[in-house]
Design a protein that fits this description.
4 helices, about 120 residues, alpha+beta, globular, two-stranded antiparallel sheet, about 35% helix, Arc Repressor Mutant, subunit A
């Protein structure tokens, strides 16, 4: 064991201290992995309440990082990969560069504004 406690389904237990990745980044990555994800599923993956996920999605949409279209009873989300990150320390870094580190499913990676797919780099 590597020191991480895990539940029966392999998902790490909730962490109560500080983390490197914000909840907004987690939600954005969950959506990048599945553009049709339900709020319930995003909340479970990110270990947040559905209400918190709704608020985060609202924040991301308000600031132009995310949009959605309604399809029947579900939403399909669209991420703007060329949008720059908000903090001055990350000036010039895009959403695509952040997601290249966080997105789990290569098939659903966000594309760069020039149309090229992000590729996972292994070192």
């Amino acid at each position: 064991m590597d020191g991480l406690s895990e539940t029966q389904n392999g998902v790490p237990e909730p962490h109560t201290g500080w983390t490197f990745v914000t909840n907004h980044a987690r939600v954005l990555a969950a959506i990048a992995d599945n553009r049709n994800a339900r709020i319930r599923d995003i909340a479970a993956r990110c270990r947040l309440t559905e209400r918190a996920v709704q608020k985060i999605i609202s924040d991301l949409e308000r600031d132009g990082y995310l949009s959605h279209t309604r399809e029947g009873r579900s939403n399909t989300y669209e991420i703007d990969p060329g949008k720059v990150l908000r903090h001055p320390a990350e000036a010039g870094l895009t959403v695509a560069s952040l997601l290249s580190l966080l997105v789990q499913d290569e098939e659903h990676r966000t594309t760069h504004p020039d149309g090229e797919r992000q590729r996972q780099h292994t070192g």
